[in-house]
Amino acid sequence: MWLLEAPPPPALQERYGFSPGPDWLDHLQKSCVRIGASGSFVSPHGLILTNHHVGAGQLQKMSTSERNYLKDGFYAPSLKDEIPCPDMEVMVLWSTEDVTKRIEGAVTTGMTPGEDEKARRKAMTEIEDASEKATGLKSQVVKLYRGARYHLYRYRRYTDVRLVMAPEEETAFFGGDTDNFEYPRYDLDICLFRVYENGHPLEVEHYLKVGRDEAHEGDLALVFGHPGRTNRLCTVDHLRFQRDIEIPTNLAWLWRREVQLTTFMARNDENARIADREFFGVQNSRKSRVGYMASLQDPEIARTELDLETKLRAWVAADPARQAAWGDAWDAIASADSTYRGFYWRHQVLDGRVGGGSALFGIARNLVRMAAELPKPSKDRLREYRDTNLESLELDLYSPAPIYPTLETDRIASGLSYAIETLGGDDPLVQAMLAGKAPRARAEELVHGSKLADIAVRKALAAGGTAAIAASGDPMIRLAAAIDPEARALRQRYEDTVDGVQTDAYAKIGAANFALHGEEIYPDATGTLRMAFGPIRGLEEDGHPIPAFTTFAGMYERAAERKGKLGFELPPRWVERKDRLHLDTPLNFIFTADIIGGNSGSPVVDRHGDLIGLIFDGNIESLAWDVAYSDTRGRAVAVDIRGILEALRVMYDAKPLADEIEGR
Amino acid sequence: MWLLEAPPPPALQERYGFSPGPDWLDHLQKSCVRIGASGSFVSPHGLILTNHHVGAGQLQKMSTSERNYLKDGFYAPSLKDEIPCPDMEVMVLWSTEDVTKRIEGAVTTGMTPGEDEKARRKAMTEIEDASEKATGLKSQVVKLYRGARYHLYRYRRYTDVRLVMAPEEETAFFGGDTDNFEYPRYDLDICLFRVYENGHPLEVEHYLKVGRDEAHEGDLALVFGHPGRTNRLCTVDHLRFQRDIEIPTNLAWLWRREVQLTTFMARNDENARIADREFFGVQNSRKSRVGYMASLQDPEIARTELDLETKLRAWVAADPARQAAWGDAWDAIASADSTYRGFYWRHQVLDGRVGGGSALFGIARNLVRMAAELPKPSKDRLREYRDTNLESLELDLYSPAPIYPTLETDRIASGLSYAIETLGGDDPLVQAMLAGKAPRARAEELVHGSKLADIAVRKALAAGGTAAIAASGDPMIRLAAAIDPEARALRQRYEDTVDGVQTDAYAKIGAANFALHGEEIYPDATGTLRMAFGPIRGLEEDGHPIPAFTTFAGMYERAAERKGKLGFELPPRWVERKDRLHLDTPLNFIFTADIIGGNSGSPVVDRHGDLIGLIFDGNIESLAWDVAYSDTRGRAVAVDIRGILEALRVMYDAKPLADEIEGR
Description:
The structure is a homodimer. The two termini of chain A are 33 Å apart. In chain A, α9 packs antiparallel against α11 and α16 (359-373) crosses α22 (475-517). Chain A has 26 helices and 21 strands. In chain A, β8 and β9 (149-158) form a beta hairpin. Chain A folds into three domains: 2-89 and 159-229 and 527-662, Thrombin, subunit H (Beta Barrel); 100-157, no CATH class; 236-510, no CATH class. Chain A has an eight-stranded antiparallel β-sheet with strand order 1-14-13-19-20-21-18-17. In chain A, strands 2, 3, 4, 5, 6, 10, 11 and 12 form an eight-stranded antiparallel β-sheet that branches. Chain A has a three-stranded antiparallel β-sheet with strand order 7-9-8. By secondary structure, the first copy, chain A, is of the alpha+beta class. The radius of gyration of chain A is 25 Å and the shape is globular. The mean pLDDT of chain A is 95. Chain A binds chain B through residues 176-178, 240, 243-244, 248, 251-252, 255-256, 258-259, 263, 266-267, 286-287, 293-294, 296-300, 302, 417, 420-422, 424-426, 434, 436-440, 565-567, and chain B through 176-178, 240, 243-244, 248, 251-252, 255-256, 258-259, 263, 266-267, 286-287, 293-294, 296-300, 302, 417, 420-422, 424-426, 434, 436-440, 565-567.
């Protein structure tokens, strides 16, 4: 997960004899897009290739009970058929700058860790605001190495994004939850969008071309995308906190919601349709968190982590100057986690899960907080309300995406019950939230009483500021307002006593690491652009070889083998047109690049920079990469560009689109 | 839930003009059987009618990957075709006796609540042992009114039980989890067994005959069965403990196991087969616990409970003698729960969920504890190892039921991971259990290393006592032995500081209740024989009437409406033979009798004592009955005997069986 602004890693030259130059890297950087997760331009006319499961949130929002793009797929044979997305944002990283010194300069001696953190956050906002004013580019400061470095990233931003093509969900997610994070796989997990500017397709200089060479087992493959979060630089005590507190709490919520949504969806077809993406998200997170927890619970991995940490700490302790500068960092992190235990669940509930993922509650909370925050100078606000983030926030807040009362009720009832389950039914704030009713009855009252489904109502409340919020009788606004004082206090406490302290401490550990190892290690994932690489390579399981590539033929075999099972149904066209396909066309492949959630949709390129596929998954063993990377059993899983082009032409009558991608 | 040994409730005469005499009640009592849950004799030749979901545990154990009785059903056209059950026990209540004075007499002044409880338990065992020696009947002391009364129950016990008939799971549980606890329903939830004695069908004097009158809306219907547990006499603080601690913890486990088993079963058909019953049990408990939690979270129900308690406490406080005798009971219960909070999760894990439901771990724990307990006098042992319980224990311990390594591994891995999630990975006992491995690796090692699947090995260990256990290298025995000291200590602590204290206190509240109300209220359910009653009565939902009875025609309509959905598939014979059925035959009906889990399989009779149906469910609203009964929206759900007879004749070619039931 190398930074593109850092020099290319020596391993690339040493192991593969490949040294990408600055132009090569610049071209890749500007061909990539941030689109929730990852994607890339694949034609000069703003065409974007990403995963189906990345685009699916938009498909869900665009669908109705009559027209289900998610389930049935979509193809626009011409530009005029392309459908605008309700609230999609595409960002292209344009330039970067190291601003560590400016951020660190904001911290003065004598500040407490809480004050340190506040000073850093203010400095970040000031730098972003200034950059945005100066360049017109979306600007974001990224905290790297958990606080040892700060880089300013500037993006071009687009919001006129239209749907071009999506396969059926059954094809994109063939094998369902059963085969998710497994290999072999047979998924056409793709979705194509097009970026428009001023009503016309965006003409781009940088885009990826389809590989001139065919990919083979053993070839070097490189990935460019936005890995979301890893925990490799975490201290051993911090990992223990995750193992014993964070992940079990998170998983308990996911297990709970998975069952609740299953019963909600079983009630009728419309429920199944409207909760589809939420359910996928819950299942996908659950499977990934289960895998991560298994790594945290594995004493062998724990021993490796402990060895590394023990060596670094011994090296620090061996020198009084090093010990004085950095020696207290590990205990500071453990102590902050121990502090956090005292209010962890309350923070999780009140600043997080209480709304159960309700759209209306999210809107209400944003309106309540905007009213409080916007009158302040940008740098003094809660970070997400800074000037440079308002456009993104409003895209979301005023989204025309449908809001379904049945699903909203289920979410809020779940969130309110969770508050009782976690904080107890006698808690005064919990009682205030329930207003004397049982969770489900209260949820119905809130959902049916609120007018926030109406975008004009949201805009009026936002325009009216504090006075409008105070005067509003909307029950969802009143609920959000009732929770907000304590939720904000808990967040403040978290930032002051946990996050701030840990940022300080990790900056020290980062410095110690740099001093000992040089800058040879890359920072933990931060949801920003990174490069990873490795050879295309199969696996061995119980003595049987699993080849790196699968084909359409394998997909049909798997469908026959698991006939009638959930997730293994093929759409009618895939049954009817089977004979027209070149069945030996590669469909998916695996390789050893270091990826993680957020890399979904990342282009996979060869050393020419040519597109050979796109990431859509990692295998179960790759989930351990959250803590430590190893290429023994872990693999990244990609859709092969050859399978994509074959499917577009044969299954979807989308020859023009395939031609556009191939530059014909 | 009236005791049969108490006088018939006045309401039966007042509301329905019905006064059952002692002979009528004695006949009903001896026609009923305890069979896990409930059932009844329905022919003079030992034929027992119960629910499919009551018999299904045996069906699961009798099935193989080649012959799946659970899924495909079974019918024995003649006695020689009936199949012996691996470990089924049938008990018939033969006589009862009030032993309250003898139990209370064992408690002497100056004892602590823990000593009180120990003395009572010893007295219970002594009474049981003596009764069994004197009468040859299985004897069990039942704690009623949470400790205000103790009754000795004596049973005839049978273990040669053979399967006669079971429908397909799809028919018995039509509608699956979606329609479970809902109404209207269309389930043929029946299973027929036959009791044998000395190799011949047991000839019984008392059995139920099919109704001479047809049942109609408005008719009085009576239920005889074994409701498992209610919490109506619980104090408000005790209900709060359930709401905030017990039920959320229990549900979190169920949600977790439901998802884990879903993924286990999705892997292949054999996994789906072997985990079928466990999965049903988890889903069924989950749905019922969700309903119960909703009642506990409902402020209206809480207010009603508080009002009742406030009145009783005020009445007690109004008189110094009453206050002195009973006044401290409520605070004692609250204080015991508060004590329990301090070790609740540790107790739940180590004395409960750590094995994840593993059969092998259960066997190991029993062997370890038997070795420690059996050398002591019966009255000094842990209650389940008392002499009078050993036959039942051994039926289970030496059961030939299959043990599946894949499922065992899944259970133990889940239990071990749960121990980490709940107690933390650094806990010394948790580390000892894991023996340096990750939960799944450790589970595999335990399951593949243990020889306890071999019944002879179990018997040898049991025969060898403490020395054999100490010398055993079986890894499952070693695990159980490692956990046992702390598990037993926690159990002791629970019995001394929670259960004992609460039994003392509830005895006081019971006495206060009797003094104020007389013995007009029946005790909380205790898994022993009770009578309930009420009229057959439909419902209204959103202004639409829901008739009390459903028919086969309705079943086919529902199947068509939910075609292709999980749980709504009809077996081939039900599709093929539809035209032969009298489609207007009643299949299920609802009425207002007060039932709860454990009543499954209870016979429903009319005032003649004739069989008109059998309980198989309650609706969602009936789940609130755990705390408080109300006939406004809550209903018991039964299979109609007419539907049973029609299905036996038309669908299963079981005319001889139907004739036997009808006495033809």
